[in-house]
Specification:
single chain, 133 residues, mainly alpha, 8 helices
């Protein structure tokens, strides 16, 4: 197995993953909801959290209410993956990567897989993408 010292791509994904983790941990849930709402839209953000009313995302983003713990977990996972891809590529690439079919996820969109609670699967796919795999 190649170490990050021997593999510049792996070093890039490790550094990007660390920055994404730190960003996610430091952000309030309102800021996370607002970021995802601004970059993915209310409907897709609602889909990540398995809620029926997309307007609820706006309430979270404004701080008027807070999501359930399982919804917060999904929002934080989505942001962390989005940030990883964005850090390595661009905002537009991150958005496209999150909503597009992914062969490493059995052709499911990463957003769908996050909604199913399979956070680690999505992070593995994101790191592989950043590493060029």
């Amino acid at each position: 197995m190649a170490t990050t010292a021997n593999n510049p791509a792996a070093a890039k994904s490790a550094a990007s993953a660390e920055r994404a983790h730190v960003t996610t941990v430091r952000m309030s849930i309102a800021d996370i909801a607002r970021f995802l709402q601004d970059n993915l839209g209310q409907r897709l953000t609602a889909r990540i959290t398995n809620i029926n009313d997309p307007r609820q995302v706006g309430k979270w983003a404004s701080g008027d209410s807070a999501p359930r713990q399982d919804a917060e977990d999904r929002l934080r996972a989505a942001l962390q993956v989005f940030q990883l891809i964005q850090d390595a590529e661009s905002l537009y690439t991150a958005r496209a990567w999150m909503i597009g079919m992914n062969p490493q996820l059995e052709d499911e969109a990463p957003l769908t897989v996050i909604a199913e609670g399979r956070f680690k699967d999505v992070m593995v796919a994101a790191r592989a993408y950043v590493d060029g795999g």
